[in-house]
Amino acid sequence: MTPSLNVPLPHNDAGLVLSAAGALTEAAPSIEIAGLQLAYAGRPVLQGLDWRLQPGQVVGLLGRNGAGKTTLLEALLGLRDAQAGSVRLFGQPATRLDDAARSRIGYVPQASDLFPELRADELLAYFRSFYPRWNTAKVEGLLARWAVPRDIEIGRMSGGQQQRLSIIRALAHEPDLLVLDEPVASLDPLARRDFLRELVGQVLERSTTVVFSTHILSDLERVAFNVAFLKAGRIALQAPLDELLEGTRLVGGPRSQTDAQTDAQTDAQIDAVPGLQVLGRQGGRSLVRIQDRGVAEAGLPAHLMAQRASLEDLFEVLT
Amino acid sequence: MDTPIQFQINTGSAEPIYRQLMDQLRRRVAAGQWLAGQELPSVRELALLLAVNPMTVSKAYGLLELEGLLERRRGLPMVIAAGHAAPARARDRIGQLEPTLQRAAAEAQELGIPKHQALALFERLLNAPAPAPAPGAPR
Q1: Which of B11, B20, B48 is the best residue to mutate to test the A interface, defined by the most A CB atoms within 10 Å of its own CB?
Q2: A190 at B interface, C-beta within 8 A
Q3: CB A201 to CB B12 under 8 A?
Q4: Cβ <8 Å between B54 and A200
Q5: ipTM of the complex
Q6: Ramachandran angles phi, psi of A206, nearest 5°
């Protein structure tokens, strides 16, 4: 973290930035990734990934264990060097952000990166000195509400207490971009709900852009208006969750009827139905986007059924 | 006395949250429980209470306004629109229940549940006290 006294330019809810000259200009995307390639020891993790987030978007990032979610989040924050491609935050290269851009970012890493020998008060006083904006009232309120002890060393706190402190640190300077990597894994359901409320408040007050990676789908469903699926090193799909829940169907046959045929045969039958676009497949079931409902219903073979999908279904098929 | 306006949501279903909010309001208004002039919580209040994205709440409110169920007043909370002062006709209310029961009937048939058992289950559910979890309570 770099010290900074630069005050970020004010911006409004529409994502417009008031430039120094006073003219309204279209804001740069909060995050703009193009062709990102990153490998560990020759094993490719991100393979030509493109991703773009507009100011004020709240996006849930979904992917299986080992899909590279943490790598992606670290790379987008400029914490990892990529072999190819570019990452820009607020229009600047992520690895060479100026102090003003840096101070607009809040990050809750998956693994605690807090200094274990400090106490909460000492840690927060330390970070406070780096940021032009620091909401003391919010910090005090959250420390009390979330019962974070101030007077013991961070290394002696429970996992849940450390996670709460990490969240408080990330929210304290009222960031415009919040990157959350499994931020609630150690929190109980009530603490999680309280955290979600805080997040909603942040979105209401500042139109914060949020990237939220978690395996707790119910949390994601509440706060993420958009969902992005990371698969095979790319963002396979990003769309508003409502649109996916309403505009897609899972198509497949009951096992008793499809036993006689292979999954490949079932897939081919689904491919032949007009008015459908196949988004993903898993074991003889296809997730399809309905392009023309009447045509699709008329063309669906009788032994295949179309069902509405839940977020869990989407996760299963698209990651 | 007016029935207080409270929403609850289920996560994990194929029904988007904004639809759940819309359906609850439609049913309560059809039943005459939420009446013309009653004030809705603001987008901000409801989003914080349910811990959901504010855009989800404003989407539901906006669509309900288009349907004529809600009225926007400048600088004031939204209200249930005028004209919804009494329960809808029984025929209309039954009509709203029909899609849900159609789904239940189809599932009962798929599961091979005999008619009398399905009806007995529905009767038992109707007789059970209405669930009243706190709004936004974890489920």
Answers
A1: B11
A2: yes
A3: no
A4: yes
A5: 0.84
A6: -120, 0
State residue A151 phi and psi, 5-degree precision: -110, 10
d(CA A213, CA A48): 20
**What confidence score (pLDDT) does residue A284 get?**
82
Q: What are the pLDDT digits (tens) for B29-69?
A: 998 899 999 999 999 999 999 999 999 999 999 999 999 99
What is the DSSP code (8-state) at residue B39?
B
Using a CB-CB cut-off of 8 Å, the residues of chain A touching B138 are 189-190, 193
Residue A20 pLDDT: 43
Strand locations in A63-146 (E): 84-89, 92-93, 105-108
CA torsion through residues A148, A214, A226, A312, sign: negative
Token pair listed for B41: 């919580």
Number of Cβ within a 10 Å radius of residue B13? 15
Residue numbers of A between 55 and 114 with CB closer than 8 Å to B: 58
Q: H or E element: which one contains B72?
A: strand B70-73
Crossing angle (nearest 10°) for helices B43-50 and B54-66: 130
Q: At what angle do helices A189-206 and B54-66 cross, to 10 degrees?
A: 70
- What's the Rg (C-alpha) of chain A? 22
Question: What CA–CA distance (Å, rounded) separates A57 from A94?
Answer: 19
Say yes or no for a CB contact (<8 Å) between B138 and A308.
Answer: no
- What is the C-alpha to C-alpha distance for residues B22 and B9, in angstroms, rounded to an integer? 11
Do the strands A43-53 and A31-40 form a parallel or antiparallel pair, or are they unpaired? antiparallel
Nearest chain A Cα to B53, which residue? A223
Give the residue among B106, B83, B103, B10 at the shortest CA–CA distance from B52: B10
Q: What pLDDT is recorded for position B139?
A: 39
Q: B14 vs A189: CB contact, 8 Å cut-off?
A: no
Contacts of residue A251, defined as CB under 8 A and 6 or more positions apart, other chains included, come to A270, A273, A276, A285, A286, A287, A288, A300, A304, A305, A306, A307
pLDDT digits (tens, 9 = 90+) for A14-71: 334 444 444 444 578 999 999 999 998 889 999 999 999 999 999 999 999 999 999 9
User: Alpha-carbon distance A221 to A218, whole Å?
Assistant: 5
- Chain B, window 64-93: residues with a beta carbon less than 8 angstroms from a chain A beta carbon: none
For residue B10, which of A190, A222, A224, A191 has the smallest C-alpha distance?
Answer: A222
Q: Which amino acid is at B128?
A: A
Cα distances (Å, whole numbers) of residue A170 to A54, A120, A199, A274, B95: 20, 13, 11, 48, 50
